[in-house]
TrEMBL record:
This is D-amino-acid dehydrogenase. Residues 8-397 form the FAD dependent oxidoreductase domain. GO terms for molecular function: oxidoreductase activity. It comes from the Bacteria.
């Protein structure tokens, strides 16, 4: 049986795979997206939809280890490590711990800032150019605090972030509360990132898929990939629907990327970081813009179509349990800050696995030693935010075009 042949096969129909497909189509390449379930059904689906150049600092930072140890045995803590015997996780944590210093923090922040800033402007261009109906709004993001020491810490960090192009505004609690009636008394201060934005991520991904199809790309859902191999004409991909062949292939499977990469002899240092969200009908009194309730690390996003609480980071492997304790922590944290912390109707309780690298940078570029195989994975908590820049960078690398940002910090070779 002859395999269906395409110019580029993209393995994974999440936000990174679809953004790469769209950018490749614009570069004149034919694409076929192979998705094991349905497009956007992974980590893209239920995140909070904030577009955040402000999130340039990595998770690995001075003080993170002490904080993590304090939270380790607290099941509802914002950062939770489920105690278990997992050599791969402990190796990952050792590398992560080694980067919790100022020098590595600055290196990751610089590289994250480059891709975040490119993606922020590019995503706005895509929304306009392709008519993406995804409730995109350029209205900023606020960090809100009820603990003075925490507020003082973040206000000071904002000073160091200015050199990376992160713009912020500082408000004391009284001034902030005058303009934000959705919040209860007790706020001591807030930090605003005016260049951040928000969208509804499930609709963004659906819109990317629509545009890919309209512009001639193929998307095969319920098509599980189980093998990859080089061929005379490029790459042969074994799937549940039969073989597919392409001149190039891109692995964009998010937290599932390591398993497929392992069949190529590549160890991708990605751990699944489990995040949770709850989506409700819209309450009658809602915040004026997206915000993070920083003392509880709860993100609040408001759209015309709904209201979402989300966040938390749980290292529990590929555990498929919808943890009620962690969902309750989202509602409890929101209840400390908001007059109306939940909507009348729960639309969805959700979890998803974020693909976390230990340096908090994505893996973008050619598979080492494989001329026609590419990696686009490891975006951590920022897949939606980094999607447009990642897709464009991958398309430029595959097409041999000049890239908008330096690809060197994101190459797989940094782990070898």
């Amino acid at each position: 049986m002859n395999a269906q042949h395409d110019e580029v096969l993209i393995i994974g129909g999440g936000v990174i795979g679809l953004a790469t497909a769209l950018a490749l189509i614009d570069a004149g390449r034919g694409v076929r997206v192979l998705e094991a379930a349905t497009v956007g059904s992974g980590a893209s689906h239920g995140n909070c939809g904030t577009i955040t150049p402000s999130h340039a600092p990595p998770l690995a930072a001075p003080g993170t280890i002490a904080l993590g140890l304090r939270w380790m045995f607290t099941p509802d803590a914002p950062l939770y490590l489920k105690p278990r015997l997992d050599p791969g996780l402990w190796r990952w944590l050792a590398h992560f711990a080694a980067r919790c210093n100022l020098k590595d923090w600055r290196q990751s922040t610089q590289s994250r800032s480059a891709i975040l800033n490119d993606s922020r402007s590019r995503l706005a261009e895509w929304v306009e150019r392709y008519g993406l109906q995804c409730e995109f709004a350029e209205e900023g993001l606020d960090y809100v605090f009820r603990q003075q020491a925490n507020f003082d810490h973040y206000a000071k960090e904002c000073e160091s972030l200015r050199e990376f192009g992160v713009v912020s505004e500082i408000f004391d609690g009284a001034d902030y509360l005058r303009d934000e009636p959705a919040l209860k008394p007790g706020v001591v201060g807030a930090v605003r990132f005016p260049e951040d934005a928000r969208l509804r991520p499930d609709r963004y991904v659906a819109e990317l898929a629509r545009v890919v199809r309209e512009r001639g790309g193929a998307i095969e859902e319920n098509c599980c990939v189980d093998s990859l191999q080089d061929s005379a004409n490029g790459v042969i991909v074994g799937t549940s629907l039969g073989p597919r062949s392409g001149s190039d292939a891109v692995i964009a499977l998010g937290a599932w990327s390591p398993a497929l990469a392992r069949t190529l002899g590549i160890e991708l240092p990605i751990q699944p970081g489990k995040g949770y969200s709850i989506t409700y009908s819209r309450p009658s009194l809602v915040p004026r813009r997206a915000m993070v309730l920083k003392d509880r690390q709860v993100c609040v996003t408001v759209w015309e179509s709904g209201f979402r609480l989300g966040s938390t980071m749980e290292f529990s492997g590929y555990d498929e349990t919808l943890n009620a304790t962690r969902l309750a922590a989202l509602e409890r944290g929101a209840g400390e800050y908001l007059h109306e912390p939940v909507g009348a109707v729960v639309h969805e309780r959700w979890y998803g696995w974020r693909p976390m690298t230990w340096d908090d940078l994505p893996v973008l570029g050619r598979v080492p030693g494989k001329r026609k195989l590419w990696l686009a994975a490891g975006h951590g908590m920022l897949g939606v935010t980094m999607s447009a820049a990642s897709g464009q960078l991958m398309a430029d690398l595959i097409a041999g075009n000049t890239t908008a940002i330096d690809p060197a910090p994101y190459r797989m070779e940094r782990f070898l």
